[in-house]
C-alpha cells in the first residue's frame, strides 16, 4: 500500500468518484484537531484561521485563481450551484444549456428557474460524438449560461473545458462548471480554461471530507450574483459586532454566511497538501495509466465498456457492463466481498486514484468475473 494511506488490505477501493478514503495525514489532522479542541477549546483559534487561509491558498493554486480571496468555502457542490442559479438576474425567456445525464444537483437547481420563465435545454450525451459543438449548437441569443460537469459522474466522459470556455466567452454565455468529478484527479487552470463559476466538494478526487466545497466565481461577476444567505461572517466588517450598517464582503467570503466548518477545513487542508506535494501532472498520469489498464482488463474479460475509449475523453471513471449478468445483484455481491465500487451509468463504475495499487485492478476484474459466474 502507498505510504500515505492506511486502507484495509481486505478492501479493493475503486470508489473515489463516490467518497474517497482519507490519507493518513488527514486522519491525523482530524484527530489532532479533535484532541486540541477537547483540551483547549478555541484557545488556538488564530492558528485555525491560518489553516483556513492555507486551504484557500491551496484551493486557489489548484484552479489557477489569482488569490485566496477568490475562494469561498461552502458546504456542498449543490449549495454552490444553488447560489448561482438563485443569484443571477434571470429574465423571462432566458435559457440554460446543459447535459441530460448530469447528476441530479446539476439539473434540479436549474429546473427551479422554470417559474421565472427560464427554459432548460439538454444535450443527450448518448447521441453526441462532439459534445462541445453540440452544446453550442443548442444555444441561441437568449442562452445565458451553459451548466455542465467537467467529468460526467455516470460514465466518466470528460469535456474539453478550454474549448467550451473560449466559445462561451466569444458568445457572451456564462459557463458554470461542476468540477467535483475532475478536480484533484486532473490539472485545471483558469488561464487556459476561463470558465465563470467552479464548484466542487472535496470528498471525491480531492481526498477530503464530505461537507466542504470549493466555490469560485469570476471576480467581475461577484456583484451580479445576488446573495441568498446572510449572517455575521459574510459582511465586510466581519469582526465589528456592534456595527449596525453592513455590506457584503468584497471577497468571496460574502458567500459564507456563518461560522466556518473548522473540522472540515483541517481535514481538506491536509488532503490538498498531499495532492500538491504529489503534483497534478503526476496524479493525472497515474490515474490515466490505471484507467488504461482497467480498460485493457475489461476488454480481455469480454465485458462491455460504457465509458469513452479516447484518453482525452476520460478522467478517473470507468463504467462497464458484464453481459448477461444482473448488474445490480452483481454490484451487491462485489460490495459484500469488499470491492468498493458503484452502480452507475447503466453498469459498474470503477474509480481508482493515483495511489491505487495496480494489482488491485486485476484482482477487481477477476473478482467481477468470478462473481458474475457464481450461481444466483
Ligand atoms: C457531478 C456531481 N455533482 C454534484 C454532486 C453532489 O455533490 P454535493 O454532495 O457536494 O452537493 C455529485 C456527487 O456525487 C456529483 O457526482
TrEMBL record:
<keyword id="KW-0032">Aminotransferase</keyword>
<dbReference type="InterPro" id="IPR000192">
    <property type="entry name" value="Aminotrans_V_dom"/>
</dbReference>
<feature type="domain" description="Aminotransferase class V">
    <location>
        <begin position="13"/>
        <end position="343"/>
    </location>
</feature>
<dbReference type="Pfam" id="PF00266">
    <property type="entry name" value="Aminotran_5"/>
</dbReference>
<keyword id="KW-0808">Transferase</keyword>
<keyword id="KW-0663">Pyridoxal phosphate</keyword>
<dbReference type="InterPro" id="IPR015422">
    <property type="entry name" value="PyrdxlP-dep_Trfase_small"/>
</dbReference>
<dbReference type="GO" id="GO:0008483">
    <property type="term" value="F:transaminase activity"/>
</dbReference>
<dbReference type="InterPro" id="IPR015424">
    <property type="entry name" value="PyrdxlP-dep_Trfase"/>
</dbReference>
<protein>
    <submittedName>
        <fullName>Aminotransferase</fullName>
    </submittedName>
</protein>
<dbReference type="InterPro" id="IPR015421">
    <property type="entry name" value="PyrdxlP-dep_Trfase_major"/>
</dbReference>
Amino acid at each position: 500500500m502507498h505510504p500515505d494511506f492506511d486502507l484495509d488490505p481486505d478492501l479493493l477501493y475503486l470508489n473515489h468518484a463516490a467518497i474517497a478514503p482519507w490519507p493518513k495525514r488527514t486522519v491525523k489532522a482530524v484527530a489532532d484537531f479533535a484532541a486540541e479542541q477537547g483540551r483547549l477549546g478555541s484557545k488556538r483559534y488564530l492558528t485555525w484561521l491560518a489553516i483556513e487561509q492555507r486551504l484557500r491558498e491551496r484551493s486557489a493554486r489548484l484552479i489557477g485563481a489569482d488569490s485566496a480571496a477568490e475562494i469561498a468555502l461552502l458546504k456542498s457542490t449543490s449549495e454552490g450551484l444553488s447560489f448561482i442559479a438563485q443569484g443571477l438576474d434571470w429574465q423571462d425567456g432566458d435559457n440554460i444549456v446543459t447535459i441530460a445525464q448530469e447528476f441530479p444537483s446539476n439539473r434540479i437547481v436549474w429546473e427551479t428557474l422554470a417559474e421565472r420563465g427560464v427554459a432548460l435545454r439538454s444535450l443527450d450525451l448518448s447521441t453526441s460524438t462532439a459534445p462541445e459543438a453540440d452544446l453550442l449548437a443548442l444555444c441561441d441569443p437568449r442562452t445565458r449560461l451553459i451548466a455542465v460537469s467537467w467529468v460526467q459522474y455516470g460514465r466518466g466522459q470528460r469535456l474539453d473545458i478550454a474549448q467550451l470556455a473560449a466559445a462561451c466567452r466569444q458568445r457572451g454565455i456564462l459557463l458554470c462548471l461542476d468540477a467535483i468529478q475532475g478536480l484533484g484527479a486532473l490539472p485545471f487552470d483558469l488561464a487556459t480554461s476561463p470558465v465563470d463559476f467552479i464548484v466542487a466538494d472535496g470528498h471525491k478526487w480531492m481526498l477530503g471530507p464530505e461537507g466542504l466545497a470549493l466555490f469560485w466565481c469570476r471576480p467581475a461577476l461577484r456583484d451580479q450574483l445576488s446573495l441568498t444567505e446572510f449572517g455575521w461572517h459574510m459582511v465586510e466588517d466581519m469582526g465589528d459586532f456592534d456595527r449596525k450598517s453592513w455590506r457584503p464582503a468584497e471577497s468571496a467570503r460574502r458567500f459564507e454566511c456563518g461560522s466556518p466548518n473548522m473540522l472540515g477545513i483541517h481535514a481538506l487542508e491536509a488532503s490538498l497538501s498531499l495532492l500538491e506535494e504529489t503534483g497534478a501532472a503526476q496524479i493525472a498520469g497515474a490515474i490515466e495509466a490505471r484507467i488504461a489498464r482497467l480498460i485493457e482488463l475489461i476488454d480481455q474479460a469480454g465485458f462491455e465498456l460504457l465509458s469513452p475509449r479516447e484518453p482525452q475523453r476520460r478522467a478517473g471513471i470507468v463504467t462497464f457492463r458484464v453481459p448477461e449478468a444482473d448488474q445490480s445483484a452483481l454490484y451487491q455481491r462485489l460490495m459484500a466481498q469488499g470491492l468498493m465500487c458503484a452502480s452507475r451509468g447503466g453498469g459498474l463504475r470503477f474509480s481508482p486514484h493515483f495511489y491505487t495499487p495496480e494489482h488491485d485492478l486485476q484482482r477487481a476484474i477477476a473478482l467481477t468475473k468470478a462473481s458474475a459466474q457464481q450461481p444466483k
